Amino acid sequence: MLEWTVAVGDTVEQDQVVAEVETAKSVVTLPSPYAGTVTALHCRAGEVVRVGTPLLTVADTASQEPGSGAVLTGYGTDGARRSSRPTPRAFAGPRPSDPDTRTPLDTTAAKYLRAHRETPAVTIWADADATHLLAARTTVGTGLLPLLARACLAGLAAFPALNSRVDTGRGEIVRLSEVHLGFAAQTARGLVVPVVRDAHRLGLDELAAEMGRLTGLAREDALPLEHRTGGTFTLNNYGPLDVDGATPILNHPQSAMLGVGRVTDRPWAVNGQVEVRKIVTLSLTFDHRVCDGGTAAGFLRRVTDHLTGDSGT
Question: Is 106 a catalytic residue?
Fold first, then answer.
């Protein structure tokens, strides 16, 4: 348990975030699947919590029975007690007594479930000539990921609707003024998503340095909390997995994710002639509530133009 966002006596709404929990992969938020008044916190911030241990009790405001309440142990509901049970991989392992191997679900599963259930996500695709992009690694002296991040930020500057979140409680789309860019980083503990704070304020060299610093911290399992949460948009590089793309589940409450696939040699028309070029597939997954397909396509085209050198920047 990293941090409580509520205290005893607070009134909580359904789906309100009540805690932040660290798992083997990342830091995730736990939403309350019910409304009521917090009557007990069963662990302290910084404490390791065992599988199935109650975290928080919420009194059901609709019930007048003594001692009635819902015990939060993760996400979801379970009969009259309306409880859910997190099973973070860091806190439990397979049960050797079972004939089959059983591995507990990570608490990130709750976040994925909520995003899949509540978000009308759409994915669009575009191929791009990455020959210019790969050459730029030498000319500007930086890695591929910062160049992809810069293209992503250029797209968000032109189409800021993708840097939004949906406030379902108030029925509003919140367009965010700051870009906190999450990016996928592979570590010994699995996939981690460090967050570059105020990425839109950084030049390419600063962006590259910060992404390198955060990747190093993530691989040392020393990423500060402020760089593990609060992302507003995610950049995901599928290239190391040797696939062209995916239709990911969005990182709730973010509204969009840019995916970059592997770079392959393909025949490509250049000035009316067919050449073998370095081609990459880009995919944008977005919440259809924050924008229509025209805006999403415009963003993806802006990113593509930036990578191919057709944007003038």
Answer: no
